[in-house]
Amino acid sequence: MSAASVSVVIPAYNEEERLPPSLERVAEYLRARPKREAEIVVVNDGSSDRTAEVARQAAERLTGGNVRVRVLDNPGNKGKGYSVRHGMRKAECEWALFTDADLSSPIEELDKLTEAVESGAYEVAFGSRALDRSLVGKHQPMLREIAGRSFNLCVRLGAGLPYKDTQCGFKLFSRRAAQAVFAKQRMDGFGFDVEILFLARKLGFPAVEVPVRWFDAEGSKVSTLNGLNAFLDIIRVRCNDLLGRYS
Q: Ramachandran region of residue 38, left (φ > 0), alpha (ψ -120 to 50) or beta?
């Protein structure tokens, strides 16, 4: 895995300020590993600011050597789940990571995920804030953190997933797993994380939860309504499965 090619997919909605420095940091990280061919795939989710423009400027500036930067556009504002699916299905490397534009989990934490899949035992590795909370550099406000822990309890009970944190936006898939899982993903909103981990388990792709560093970033796009809807997504995943929509 250390020399395998990797795509880094970054969904972006109105991220004109945070995106450029994040792309610089990701490109610098990837260039420091010249034996690994890499690409950065920015998915512009119908942004109303200059996100698409600054992303394309960065693509011209940062493409070179072992790193290529591409920009994809959604047909309007479709949601994070749609954006991640769009990017992961268009990713061209042997492995594909999706991460948030604010790099809440520093890109350097990818080393932990690649180490976890190095043995070949896993085809999915995903970051977790719950396995080692000492790695959380800046916590969310207390109410959001309580809601997050409650949500993950509901995930374990409702979706039958044995994980402690499904919502950390830092997940690595083999190309084979990504193509199979994201082809069946149906949810476009913030509850998609549960769905893709449920699908990976259902389709027989071994997954491992890995403790990573994480820092809460201001300007979250997750509203209270989005958060409440994510609880309903647990039920939707079960219903989709029972109705054969994942067949």
A: beta
